Amino acid sequence: MSSVTGTPARVTRRQLLIRSAVTAAMAAPAAGLLSACAGGSSTQASAPQGKKSADNPFGIGASAPLDVYYFKGGLGENFAKAFDALYSKKFPDATISYSSGTDVTGDLQPRFNAGSPPDFIFDDGDKKLKLDVLHSNGELTNLDVLLDAPSIDDPSKKVRDVLVPGTIEAGQIGTSMFSLNYALTVYGVWYSKSLFQQKGWAIPQTWDEFMSLCATIKAAGIAPWAHQGKYPFYMMVPLMDMVAKAGGESIMKKIDNLMPNAWHEDAVVQSVERIYSLVAKGYMLAGTEGLTNTEAQTAWTQGKAAFVPCGSWLEQEMQGITPAGFDMAVMPMPKATGDQMPATAVRALAAEAFIVPARAANQAGGLELLRIMCSKAGGAAFAKDAKSLPVVRGAITPEIAATMSPGTKSSSDLIAAAGSDVISWKYSTWYSQMETDLETAMGELMGNRIKPAEFVKRAQAAADKTATDSSIQKFTRA
Length: 478
Known about the structure:
- By secondary structure, the chain is α/β, with parallel strands linked by helices.
- It contains 19 helices and 12 strands.
- A hairpin with a 2-residue loop joins strand 5 (172-173) and strand 6 (176-177).
């Protein structure tokens, strides 16, 4: 059964993977407070343990209470309750204490400092916990033990064998996995299929076609592009997609590995100039640089703009706001002349981090809940209730696929078309302060307060600062 603690009012999602200026302001104190508790002893008693077996690989006590916390965003809460129900079905005598909120750091940082964190956390939002800081302070459970546990659906397989490629790497810090990044998130440029059909506009494949279409759209009295200006994360995605397509694996390694002058490479400079041209040519929705995620996306659903950048959570986030017949769809960033990756290349990654604190009272229970999520039943519940693709192989049954909404179906088609040409960056996970500095510069660029050359200068300075800071653990992209 569940005992529910108070939860804040529902907030829209992104306020999500985004890091806003609020995040930048709180990064230093978060690190300081979490550092203060590193190495301290837990103030809570450990949960009763059970006998380990193939069906209970972590040795959970049948009546051990489970304390769970979920970020409350655009994915809703039904999927979380479905996960908890699957756990309760297996351990009916366990009480689940459920809580949720939008300020994950504000809600949970005092508990980490007191040595009494929850047993299981869905960590997300613009006020999420910094996983690199938690890891450096020994506050995260190494999830390699989860990966090596038997799969629920087929005990002859390990959990690692039922996850889609890239899932483990997405949650790794160094060579071990510390977060289960559960949603297969597809990023791209979103549009209304019905609007495009009505106007007779073709989906652009190249940058030249895209810019020509933008001119046509503007002439029709519609802004070509809207973006969530208060959260510059959103515009960093299309920029870095263009950088990856332009320079291929080589530029991704140079940037992720903090190589000298990587941000001065042609692949970066030309991509920044192209993104900025949307501002310079007046293709942005007026005032979009000052809008929140839902404000910009609402304007888009109202037909005030033709394109908006976002991840595949967009459809669920805008549920109840998007008009009937809008038929949202997503396309990859168009290919520019000389690009090293094809037009179909797209950014897709395992996102939405789920963690188990190292000092959780019922650490075994937290691990088991993750194992349940990695079952077909867990994946199916997520697809149904969160309207998002899970990272569990075989979870999308024909029955579930038949009920997919237009945006989810479009996301699924996009990743299928990309094949092995999937874009994935590491620096934003490895170096959170560097990502914050980049987003700050992007906000200035999109606000037309700096020009491309200054953005490149600031980006390189952020990378150099990270590279020379001996207090920051460094990682290498092979």
